[in-house]
Amino acid sequence: MELAGAIAELARASLIHDFRYIDPSNARIILIEAGPRVLPTFSEKSSAAARRALERLGVEISTGRTVTACDADGVEVGGERIAAGTILWAAGVAASPVAKWLDAPADRAGRVAVRADLSVPGHPEIFVVGDACASLSWDGKLAPGVAPAAKQMGAYAASVIRARVEGASAPAPFRYRHRGSLATIGRNNAVADFGWMTLSGRPAWLVWSVAHIFFLIGFGSRIVVALDWLWAYATFRRGARIILAETTDPTTNSRLAPEAVQA
After folding, report:
1. Are 32 and 62 in contact (CB under 8 A)?
2. Which residues does 98 contact at the CB level (< 8 Å), separation at least 6?
3. Are 89 and 96 in contact (CB under 8 A)?
4. pLDDT tens readout for residues 144-192
5. Are 18 and 260 in contact (CB under 8 A)?
6. CATH code linked to domain 2-92+180-235
7. Catalytic site residue from 2, 44, 76, 259
8. What are the sequence ranges of the domains in the chain?
9. 14-27 burial code (b ≥16 CB/10 A, e <16)
10. In the β-sheet with 181-186, what is the strand arrangement from edge to edge?
11. 125: annotated active-site residue
12. I want to staple 111 with a disulfide (CB 3.0 to 4.6 A). Which of 24, 58, 63, 134 is the partner?
């Protein structure tokens, strides 16, 4: 979903600015979601706001249909053939093969089905955290494979190991504490879902920006990223550029100047 918004903004801003011989208006950006709505882990209100924002950017959204075939010329969706020169697959990736290494039980995605203390069944001395484990610690649901969950799991596993070394009582079973979900859709647009409060548009985008800078490691890194983002926001440009080779105009057989694209 975030990728679709970024591509749409690239077509509307960078391509028009940097490429004289590309007309982005001829491009179609189609987002195919097998679930009933975009951002299915967010509230319905946030999901609806995200969909409206994407549609304003010109993204065509198809929900409730799965991709059944994919090749160099396009995709098949629910019996319909959609021609496409560029396909970006964002439907998930395979988990680390740690479950196979340990011969441990795993879920469909290959994540280790850990115990309540994040240890591997049959191997209490081995802990698996982050997106390599399937932990039912979010009110009976799987903890998401995101950085905040991994950080909480790492701290918890350390506390279990420390308790064992010191001979202290084991801590209570791990419980993932979800502090909210953020998703950016494009320039000045995002959705924020904290359960007790939802935001969309520019306010959510500001929250998303501050949160991502705040959680960077090191004060210097925060300053550098903040200044880089401010420059990109004010100028619609990024620091790196890719220069492409000279091309020939087929109508005049004359050389065209190299084009450049923001990286």
Report:
1. yes
2. 104, 112, 128, 132
3. no
4. 988 899 999 999 999 999 999 999 999 999 999 998 899 998 888 999 9
5. yes
6. 3.50.50.100
7. 2
8. 2-92+180-235, 98-166
9. bbeeeeeeeebeee
10. 181-186, 189-193, 198-201
11. no
12. 134
